[in-house]
Amino acid sequence: MSKIIDDILSSLSRSRIFRNRELLLPDYVPEELPHREEQIKRLVEILSPLMRGEKPNNIFIYGLTGTGKTAVTKFVVKKLHEKISNSFIYAYINTRQTDTPYRILADLLENLGSRVPFTGISTAELYRRFIKKVLELKPILVIVLDEIDAFVKKHGDDILYRLTRANYEMGKSKISFIGITNDVKFVDLLDPRVKSSLSEEEIIFPPYNAEELEDILKRRATLAFYNSVVSDDVIKLCAAIAARDHGDARRALDLLRVAGEVAEREGAEKLTIEHVNKARVEIERDRVYEVVSTLPFHSKLVLLAIVIGVNEKKRTLTTGEVYDVYTKLAKKIGVESVTQRRVSDIINELDMLGIITARVVNRGRYGKTKEVNLAVNEETVIKAISEKDSKVASLWDR
DNA sequence: CATCCACAGGAAGGACGGGGGT
DNA sequence: ACCCCCGTCCTTCCTGTGGATG
């Protein structure tokens, strides 16, 4: 009896597809970064003063998502640190995850070995502690701030200004910054002083083209999958889809991994084009479900109003129309509505999340408004709303 | 050519709950 | 025990605006 169980378990746990699935996960930093030799070289050159215990220039790194900015930076900094570990300390902060000034400082301090409460003290106090701590340190500190465009759009460049000013305040230059951004136009939002200070050096990461993506996928696939599980056609398709999406290597690797997972679930021996297509749908569905189900209450209600309104009118809605439907829904379940001003912001938030599209239009005599439309699969939205929120769910019956 | 629509979106601030410091 | 600070969600009040219309 136990043999049967063992057999089933082992047949379930032994993948016929993946040799090592982890190599396809987004935060895996590979040992080789093909087609980024140029950027690696530049980065090492700029950081080379560290070898002499001097502070390198600050660096600004531009490039769209999935162009290897993060991987290259992490890779180079880590390798350098392995070589000359006593001459500098580094901290990597993703400012999309660590998305408040407070938490950035808290993270930095924790990196330097201070324990910091989640919350409770003022940002100014944290800043003081940070300066004090840095002054106590001998080595140079290298701070990597990833995705700072997202952060600055949300909170402004205040901490950036203060952090870059820290060198002056301390009377000696001990901190080097590496700023990474997805948005090239973002620099214009910066205070000129921060801008000039941060971009002493610049490195640009161009998108990968389909050919390069293919090469990257191929190399990764030979390590991640068993031999002859993945055909060139499958690689080509993944590369092509990602290339269309501004050469996003992360997207391409995700696609390949999920396609592998789909194939495994189906008990297939090889990856097919069909698996890739299913993977594409699945990735999108998961993303939408995740985003929608964690939305605040009124955001869900607004979203539902958009779904209902678009169904009814069979066209895009204006902000006013959305608000009308929304207030009716709110009344039906007996909750207070938020103001139209707030709904306007919620619409923008949903747009930013890619759940809806909202375009500002001027219709002359008929005013200025937004044209709102659903941008994702309706069923997924309904499912995400109704499974997590019975109150809102009761509004959906047909 | 001025008007005026239907909002956009900035500024300031408040209620509230979660989490400190002392 | 009491005060302080934070982020989140929201309100109030506001000025700005492109172009169809009279």
Which SSEs are present, and which pair or pack?
Elements: H1 2-13, H2 37-47, E1 59-63, H3 69-83, E2 88-94, H4 101-111, H5 123-136, E3 140-146, H6 148-155, H7 158-170, E4 175-181, H8 192-198, E5 201-205, H9 210-224, H10 232-244, H11 249-265, H12 273-293, H13 297-313, H14 319-332, H15 340-352, E6 356-362, E7 368-374, H16 378-388, H17 390-393
Parallel strand pairs: 1-4, 1-5, 2-3, 3-4
Antiparallel strand pairs: 6-7
Helix pairs in contact: 2-3, 4-5, 9-10, 9-11, 10-11, 11-12, 12-16, 13-14, 13-15, 13-16
The chain binds a DNA duplex (22 and 22 nucleotides) through residues 100, 102, 117-123, 125, 296, 298, 318-320, 338-342, 344-345, 348, 360-370.
| Overall tally of structural domains | 3
| CATH superfamily caption of the largest domain | P-loop containing nucleotide triphosphate hydrolases
- Count of helical segments? 17
Which architecture of the largest domain per CATH? 3-Layer(aba) Sandwich
User: Widest sheet: strand order?
Assistant: 2-3-4-1-5
For this structure, the CATH topology of the largest domain is Rossmann fold
The succession of helices and strands, N to C, reads HHEHEHHEHHEHEHHHHHHHEEHH
Helix share, percent: 40-55%
List keywords for this structure.
398 residues, globular, 3 domains, DNA-binding, Helicase, Ruva Protein, domain 3, Rossmann fold, 7 strands
How is this structure best described in words?
With 398 residues, the chain is of the alpha/beta class. It folds into 3 domains: 37-205, P-loop containing nucleotide triphosphate hydrolases (Rossmann fold, 3-Layer(aba) Sandwich); 208-291, Helicase, Ruva Protein, domain 3 (Orthogonal Bundle), CATH 1.10.8.60; 294-393, Arc Repressor Mutant, subunit A, CATH 1.10.10.10. Helix content is 54%, strand content 11%. The chain has helices at residues 2-13, 37-47, 69-83, 101-111, 123-136, 148-155, 158-170, 192-198, 210-224, 232-244, 249-265, 273-293, 297-313, 319-332, 340-352, 378-388, 390-393; strands at 59-63, 88-94, 140-146, 175-181, 201-205, 356-362, 368-374. The longest helix is centred in the last third of the chain and has 21 residues, at 273-293. The mean pLDDT is 86. It binds a DNA duplex (22 and 22 nucleotides) through helix 15, strand 6 and strand 7.
